[in-house]
Amino acid sequence: MAGGIREQHGDELSENHEINVTPFIDVMLVLLIIFMVAAPLATVDVNVDLPASTAKPAERPDEPLYLTVKEDLSLNIGNDAVAREQLAATLDRVTEGKKDTRVFLRADKAVDYGQFMEVMNLLRDSGYLKIALVGLETLPAPAPPVAPAPAGNAPAAAPAVPATGGNP
Fold this sequence. Notes:
Strand content: 5-15%
Order of helices and strands: HEEEHEHE
Structural class: alpha/beta
Number of strands: 5
Helix content: 25-40%
């Protein structure tokens, strides 16, 4: 019990060895509420419109606008090379000023992530917020063929293990 009836009337108090856990529970509930409120605020949003990898490919417009970042960090709109300084003006000319045009952004594997983000920031600063990232569509890997069971009493062959050069 947290409290009890004293049967002694003397000045000496008896020791209570029970721990009152109510303040600990209160503190934990307050911390839980704080983290529940703060967790959604800690996420960072980048306005990128990406399809899920398991979904059917999105329908492409009749004439998609591709912006390509090549390995040497040069930019191409479609097949035409464009300087970074002229990117906004060229996009406005190609899209006829329609800022809601979806820009399909693709980059070489060798392009650094920081350089890729700079190009995305150039697009956002130009007012083009509908950016779709382009990648290779891959099919799921086929299942390996199942080996037939050995016939009769013949022992099954042990699978080959590649040598790793370690200690035996």
